[in-house]
Structures are given as C-alpha cells and as structure tokens.
Amino acid sequence: MNIRHSFAFGLAVFLFQLPLAAYAATVTYDGITFPDGDVSFADDYRDVVVGDPAPTAGNFDPAATIGAPDGSAYSLGQGGYVTLEFTDNSLTGSGDDSADLHIFEVGPLVEDTFVWISTDNENFISLDKVFGSTSSIDIDPYLLDAGIDPFTQFSYVRLQDDPNENTSNVTYAGADIDAVGAITSAPPVTSVPGPGSLGLIFGGLFALGARRVLRDRALDQKS
Ligand SMILES: [Ca+2]
Ligand SMILES: [Ca+2]
Ligand SMILES: [Ca+2]
C-alpha cells in the first residue's frame, strides 16, 4: 500500500467513524443517565396548542423545553400539548425493559402528562401517561403491542397535559415541561449514512485512487 492508498484508507475510516464520535459523552441529570450525552435531548418544537385555561404567569415559551434540563419550563395549560422534534438524534426502543425516554417536569405540582411518539408527526403511538415523579418510559412494550420494530427511529414526541387533573391551579395550569430526552438515543433519521451514501464515499475514493494510478502510469510511460 503506497502513501496515497494509506491516506485514502485512513480518510475512509475517519469518515466512517465520524458519526459515532459525535455520540459518545455520557451525561446524568436528576439521576437519569443519557449514554449519548446532551445530543439525546429534543432539538425543536412543533404544533403548540395552549390549553384552556392557559397559564396566567410565566412559562409561556415552548423553547424552554429544548435541550438538556436547565430549570426553564413551558406550561402546557390545562389539556394543552406540544410536539417536540429530535433533529440531531432519534429515539428508539432498547429491545429490553430498560427505560428509553424521560420527561423532565418542574414546578410546584408535577402533573400527569400523556405521551405519544411518531416517526412522521402524523401517525402517533400512545405511551399512556407519565405520573410526575415516575417519568421514565420503557417504550418497547408499546412498540411490541403495535407490531413495530423496537429499533424504529422516532423523531417526534408529543406531550399533552391531562385535562382532567388539577383544574384549580390556574397560575401554572398544565404540566411544566423542562426537557425531554431519549435515554435510548440513535443517530438522526435524515443523516444516517445508508448503504447508498457509504457506497458513494467509497466509490468516490476508489475512483480518485484509480484515476491517480492511471495518471502515474501515463507519466511513467512518458518518462
Ligand atoms: Ca437532540
Ligand atoms: Ca426499553
Ligand atoms: Ca428547559
């Protein structure tokens, strides 16, 4: 293997490992460990529907639900909901009974919240309710019940305040969501290098190498 081939091989190995390197810094919040680090948390929000009654003070910004837990929260309002999106990671089942998803709530009252997940923000699978302090969810049984592959990558999590709970507290009406994290986190759905794109990378490197070999031969023949 000459130096050019060594370089091409090294580059190919580097490109192949690049996505893995971005997912390798374990973090722990409130005793919940996220093996893939802060990338595990929701990255954007969609489809905000404010509950009725709406919160009367503070916590109006849905962006407070984005990223790792930081004490900033968004109040859903009574029965309100928000859909969060993972863009630089995704949520999957673990294939066993360990927890896969965690909802961080803050506030004077931790409320029951309905949770759904989706691959397309159109068809949702219900994960029932989380009950405040026990807000880690093992999603595998729900996927099994729905006949869905446990390693399906989900990009969307919808949270809805239970409309039949805590109707008297209007100051912080609805669950206060600080953060949502995928304990079982996978690479993002859109930028996973599939066999096609890996083929393009290796094919491109091969073509580059072949062209150089041909050029070197042509130079050899001239001299
Ligand atoms: Ca993320
Ligand atoms: Ca699991
Ligand atoms: Ca927050």
Describe the structure.
- The chain has 223 residues and is of the alpha+beta class.
- It folds into two domains: 1-23 and 191-223; 26-186, Jelly Rolls.
- It has helices at 3-21, 140-145, 195-222, and strands spanning 27-29, 32-34, 44-49, 74-75, 81-85, 90-91, 101-105, 112-118, 124-131, 136-137, 156-161, 176-182, 185-186.
- The strands form four sheets. Strands 3-5-11-8-9 form a five-stranded antiparallel β-sheet, with no helix packed on it.
- Helix 1 (3-21) packs antiparallel against helix 3.
- It is elongated and about 85 Å long.
- The structure holds calcium ion (3 copies).
- One calcium ion binds next to strand 12.
- One calcium ion is lined by residues 93-94, 96-98, 100, 138-140.
